[in-house]
User: What shape does this take?
Amino acid sequence: MRQKFVAGNWKMNLTLPEAQALTSEIVHMLHDELLSPAAPQVVICPPFPLLSAVGHLIGDSGNPALGAQNFHQKESGAYTGEVSAKMLHSVGCQYVILGHSERRQHFREDDELLSQKLKTALAAGLRPIFCVGESLETREADETFAFIGKQLKDGLFHLSNEEFEKVVIAYEPIWAIGTGKTASSQQAQEVHAFIREQIAGAYDAQAAANTSILYGGSANAQNARELFGQPDVDGGLIGGASLKSRDFVEIIKSF
Ligand code: 13P
Assistant: This one.
């Protein structure tokens, strides 16, 4: 059985006191629920300066786990202002988001860079949450599957079977991110099923069956249950709604 996930991507939001208040509320509202074997794996991904404080508040039960939003592809060295994967691991991160459309778009992260980052993350003991997703133009041109197939092939499928086992995939249609326009559960399901088929082709049926594929893009407490009810949707990567404790907890309870 593959793992269910709800990951919160805080993006560039919240100060330290705000992050502490939000984390305490989430931890308080969930009580011991996340210790049940049926619970989804929750991952909280704050900005760098807040990682340690949030990590301290979520504790070391493993659920919730701590994740980061980015790092530099080199292991260490003279890269002023950058953060390494090893540093993230050393402050308690277990996951890192990679290939988010905001980083592809605003920071020009391409498949080659993402391939290097994947290797660096895995070598440092971080599990990548690898994002793919099409723009509205691509969808309207009926090129969604070709586009996502290429993102997977060029960015991800160079990993060995053993490396690939550590990867979580997130399908985030760009037109749904922060827009309030969620993909319908049918649109999400058909892309998730396509991603699973591609994994089966690149690796094998076992790898396809075991890989968690999350949906992201205006997911919220109202639509999570229907999205998570789709056979190939294994959870969500949540932006805006992860900044509100009640909404985030409702999403977690949607399974
Ligand atoms: P929203 O949930 O705010 O649309 O953001 C989704 C996202 O980009 C998560 O990584």
